[in-house]
Design brief:
Protein name: MFS transporter, UMF1 family
Number of helices: 15
Strand content: under 5%
CATH superfamily: MFS general substrate transporter like domains
Subcellular location: Endomembrane system
CATH class: Mainly Alpha
Number of domains: 1
CATH topology: Growth Hormone, Chain: A
CATH architecture: Up-down Bundle
Distance between the termini: 31 Å
Keywords: Membrane, Transmembrane, Transmembrane helix, Transport
GO cellular component, one term: endomembrane system
Structural class: mainly alpha
Order of helices and strands: HHHHHHHHHHHHHHH
GO molecular function: transmembrane transporter activity
Number of strands: 0
Helix content: over 70%
């Protein structure tokens, strides 16, 4: 099979799954749950955050084990399929969530996000199988760029259902946007499962996958000193991913409450920001293959610092759009470069297991960062001050990154 075609099919999965994150987590379902399902109750934000945190906690806990099990069974595609179907099915069933269906709405969100985030463990681990180490940065960038194209396209498809202020929305149309998210994910993920072939290894079918998963994870922790460079990177990643996750979760809230964006303006804002995210993923992916992932990642973290400081001083919508463009470029490049750097420094024989830890740190950070933002905002009464606290995550992450050695892991024979 032609390598370029295989890479294209791999990136289509990124194109497909972002329909869930942008329509369910960021825009349509989050507002629908708060305004309609909980009846605009004061406890609505807490319930939404609780459901999201539960899902991220579960994914963070199981990711290392899933990675180890998939490595041993040589069956990443099977596990990816199961998690993908879980996300798509749960997302589609959100159509039936109505007023007062709080428990159902929360359970479906938890299951869908577990499917979405859990599947990424196996999807990311295919990167070393579809390209060479020399092109990790470029191909990873292509994947994230396709993801942002997918976000743009799914928002565009769903936009007619979500026009107007929320009070003016037709609730049936809003719920149709959940079907759009599920259908988009299903249709564009199918080529991956049809075309991509996984490298097979000889395995002992009598061995328990769970037992092997636990033993391999224990072995990884027991040999932590041997993998100290990977540990340094994961610590840095944990810190700056905190900042990235916080920006993603609170960007629309900041725009609406601090800068008085309407819901239509928020949707338009996310549509336009995708363009710089696409460019950032591709351009910085090429740069990473030229000057190295570590230097490129350092540059993107500096962009994040500029973004946070700029948001603090922002007083009008036009300036916020400019800041959004910078954030988009930083987001696409930092995520893709992080993935390619991880691919470079991990042992090839334990790639899926270590991507499980990579996922673990990324998912865990989705709980801490928003908590810091919310606490600072509540104590000071200012979201601007909270934005400055986010800048500290990027600064600390950048400092810790400098301790990481960008070199291929040498496995003993």
């Amino acid at each position: 099979m032609d390598r370029k075609f295989k890479i294209f099919i791999w990136t289509l999965f990124d194109f497909a799954n972002t329909s869930f994150s942008v329509l369910i987590l960021t825009t349509a379902y989050s507002v629908y749950f708060r305004e309609i399902v909980t009846g605009n109750s004061q406890i609505g934000d807490f319930l939404w955050g609780l459901a999201f945190s539960i899902s991220m906690f579960i994914v963070a806990f199981i990711s290392p084990f899933l990675g180890a099990i998939a490595d041993h069974s040589s069956n990443k595609k099977f596990f990816l399929f199961i998690f993908t179907i879980l996300c798509i099915t749960s997302t589609g069933l959100m159509f039936f969530v109505g007023r007062g269906d709080i428990l159902l709405g929360m359970v479906l969100l938890i299951l869908a996000n577990i499917g979405f985030e859990g599947g990424l463990v196996f999807y990311d681990a295919f990167l070393p199988e579809i390209t060479t180490e020399r092109s990790y940065g470029r191909v990873s960038g292509y994947g994230f760029a396709m993801g942002y194209v997918g976000s743009f396209m799914s928002l565009l498809v769903a936009y007619p259902f979500l026009k107007g202020e929320f009070a003016e929305w037709n609730l049936f149309n809003v719920k149709l946007s959940f079907i759009v998210a599920a259908s988009f994910f299903l249709f564009f993920s199918l080529p991956f499962f049809i075309v991509i072939k996984e490298r097979k290894i000889e395995i002992d079918n009598k061995i328990s996958y769970l037992k092997i998963g636990i033993e391999r994870v224990k072995s990884t922790f027991a040999n932590a000193k041997k993998y100290s460079n990977i540990g340094r990177f994961l610590l840095s990643y944990f810190i700056y991913a905190d900042g990235i996750n916080t920006v993603i979760i609170f960007a629309s809230i900041f725009a609406r409450h601090t800068l008085n964006f309407s819901l239509v303006e928020i949707l338009t804002f996310f549509l336009t920001v995708q363009s710089t995210a696409i460019l950032g993923s591709v351009i910085f992916g090429i740069i990473a293959d030229s000057i190295g992932q570590k230097k490129t990642l350092s540059l993107t973290l500096l962009l994040w610092v500029i973004t946070a400081i700029g948001a603090y001083f922002c007083v009008d919508k036009t300036t916020f759009y400019i800041i959004g463009f910078i954030a988009g470029a930083a987001m696409g490049s930092s995520q893709s470069t992080s993935r390619s750097l991880m691919s470079k420094i991990i042992p090839p024989s334990k790639k899926t297991e270590f991507f499980g830890f990579y996922s673990f740190f990324g998912k865990s950070s989705a709980i801490l960062g928003p908590l810091v933002f919310g606490t600072v905002s509540s104590l000071t009464g200012s979201q601007r001050v909270a934005v400055i606290s986010v800048a500290l995550f990027f600064i600390v992450g950048l400092i810790l990154l400098q301790r990481v050695r960008e070199e291929k892991f040498q496995e003993s024979v």
